[in-house]
Here is the input.
Amino acid sequence: MSDYPHALVPPGGTAPVPRRVRAMIDDRVVVDTQDAIYLWEFPPYPQYYLPLAAVADGVLTDTGETKTFDHGVARVHTAGKGAAWVYDDGIAKDRVRFQWDALDRWFEEDEEVFVHPRNPYSRVDAVKSTRRVQVAVDGVELADSTATVIVFETGLPPRYYFPRTAVHLEHLTPTDTVTACPYKGRTSAYWSVPKVPDVAWSYDFPTAPLLPIANHVAFFNENVDLMIDGVPQERPITPFSNPASRPTDGKV
Here is the structure.
């Protein structure tokens, strides 16, 4: 049993999207619907499955190929700058799922959404804490603070964001990695240590609800030795545990 809440919806689960969803290519609206559904392909977050009738003519080109997923067989299409999958039966019958980056911009109502749809069953809270939190790798201390901001996000371990003055940046090597999150925004920096690439990150300009983490540094609990109030913590097992196969959606 983990020490944080798991995601509520299993893979293959669906739910209606109560929001108008639109998408654009080159400033032209090519998707516009109030009848989308969420479908969870894996637990942390869903994807939009859109009615075919909501897609503008000429956006989809059938390749003649098919691809089998756990929730059905899809006809593979090209669309914009990427791929799309059209379903003729099953829970996604007469719907299409676009690769997110195939289209240029996505909107829920009139607010732009980044990376993937927001999970309607998730909370993301930034909470200040005076607990002492220490981070080390191979016996080298990387951070130590009694003034972290803890981000509690449904389905993920708590993430401890340290003031930069509490981080031993001399032990960290900057990288060019950039990721994005629909809840927090786009990262401004990543750092590696010798045995763990991209072990830490920071947001200089997070979204408004997550402003407390601005200019703070967080670490992957999965890859460091974490101690809270003097008590060593077990490393959680998540999709981010293996640095070589981390999801690229930036869910950190």
Remarks:
- The chain has no helices and 24 strands.
- The first strand starts at residue 14 and ends at 16.
- The chain has a mean pLDDT of 93.
- The radius of gyration is 20 Å.
